[in-house]
Design a protein that fits this description.
With about 140 residues, this protein is mainly alpha-helical. The chain is about 50% helix and about 5% strand. Bound molecules: zinc ion (2 copies).
Length: about 140
């Protein structure tokens, strides 16, 4: 371990980061970080298990940086707009596949896609109306 690395560990530990987060940011193993912290009395503000458990909601999803939440406001998931864009770019396929569904309209036969709704039957409201009233009386 270099002087630079031990300084980083000390700083990050003092700001309440968990071993896992520190280890992944510095590029050392978690055991290495933990034993360094133990031998140097860096216990951190919270217990490590608590910090690690909350890491998902309190750190940026892209870069893992610790987030400052504003009380009363919606919790942030990214430290910056750049990180938000990075995440969306990296996960675009996943996001699209999950939210977009393809259908063939039961009335006009046109292929269309719908965002976030897996139960569409008609491409438009007018197709829905046409189908309902043209078959309804028979
Ligand atoms: Zn970030
Ligand atoms: Zn249609």
């Amino acid at each position: 371990m270099t002087d630079q690395q031990s300084k980083l560990i000390t700083n990050m530990r003092e700001s309440g980061l968990g071993y896992t987060t520190i280890a992944s940011q510095i590029g050392l193993s978690k055991d290495c970080v933990r034993s360094y912290c133990r031998t140097h009395g860096l216990k951190g503000i919270r217990s490590p298990s608590h910090v690690d458990k909350e890491a998902g909601s309190n750190t940026c999803r892209t870069c893992g940086r610790y987030l400052q939440h504003t009380p009363g406001k919606r919790k942030k998931q990214y430290c910056s707009d750049a990180c938000r864009m990075d995440w969306w770019n990296a996960h675009q396929d996943k996001v699209k596949r999950k939210a977009y569904y393809s259908f063939t309209c039961a009335q006009c036969g046109k292929t269309f896609s719908s965002y976030g709704n897996a139960k569409r039957v008609y491409c438009s409201h007018s197709c829905y109306i046409t189908a309902r009233f043209s078959h309804g009386d028979k």
